């Protein structure tokens, strides 16, 4: 996922960690999208703490984690909070990290809901997709924020510095598929972007406009048993 407008500069290696938020309290299992006041569950807070601990351990082993940004939604800010504490960093809210807009926001989507004719115009093209923000737009904004964060990390911590961006499953998955040169349309059930996971983008040179390597990890995996891992929930 190269930057849309790479600028000439000296070579600078950097790692940008994309952290998905923890489990959300959502007993009605609605598509919460960009709705306000959807908080992490008690387990979700534990997941965020596990991710923070993993990043703090990385710092103990010499990593220079110097920049932290987050989607401005409640669940991502709550996930960023223990990271900020563990790394002694300020959280920078960034709209480019936000959840994609979705026609089904606020609804519990089941067969009955999908059978309503009012929804049909929004389901015409699953490859765009027609029910929400186009995949290409998600990739574009994520590419911008990743490269900006990487460059900011290098400004602060020098060559080899690292940044953490707290976001949501779909934009993180889009960033990964772009980085790996894969088609953006996909089966949501196949996403490898679990709760409080880290999708780390490793740039040999963040200024070169080249695709990064991808490293994936799940610091909170031991908390997953019994947790709903359906896309978006």
UniProtKB/TrEMBL annotation:
Could you cite one Gene Ontology molecular function of this protein? phosphatase activity
The cross-references to InterPro entries, in alphabetical order and at most eight, read: His_Pase_superF_clade-1 (IPR013078), His_PPase_superfam (IPR029033), PGM_Phosphatase (IPR050275)
Task: List the Gene3D superfamilies hit by this protein, alphabetically.
Answer: Phosphoglycerate mutase-like
Any one cellular component term from GO for this entry? cytoplasm
List the SMART domains: PGAM
Q: Name one Pfam family in it.
A: His_Phos_1
Please give the superkingdom of this protein's source.
Bacteria
What is the protein named?
Histidine phosphatase family protein
